[in-house]
Design brief:
alpha/beta, HECT_dom, Hect, E3 ligase catalytic fold, 7 helices, EC 2.3.2.26, single chain, E3A/B/C-like, 4 strands, ubl conjugation pathway, 142 residues, elongated, four-stranded mixed β-sheet
Amino acid sequence: RKEYVDLYVNYMLNKSVRKPFEDFMKGFLRGCPARYWKIFFPEELQTLLQGDTTVDWHLLEKNVIYRKYNKLDQTIRNFWIVFHKLPEEKKKMFLVFLSGSDRITVCGLGYFRFSIEDPQVENPDESSPYASTCSLILFLPR
């Protein structure tokens, strides 16, 4: 019975996917030759390909550029108070809203900068925040 299970597992995990995996590997190596990616440890390669999954939210706050606002405006202070009280999952959802991804690029948070801008609408109470994901701008009505 053990031999049967071993052979079955080997078939399912190795032999049955050998051809698709070889095709994938061939295409991957064509676009990214082994000499470039073999210098990385697996964890480094994963971060390079997927981005960083851990975020220092206070550093994110520190790197913000304010337009038509300053750091001490009540709207900005309220925003950061509420933001820091959010659970981790909601903070990552904010990153998706702002940038289109819940991860920071491989360069790290030190290079991730976004702007918070006052859209200067006539009636801010009737306006919702919106983002320009290409420019990394959060438009936050007062």
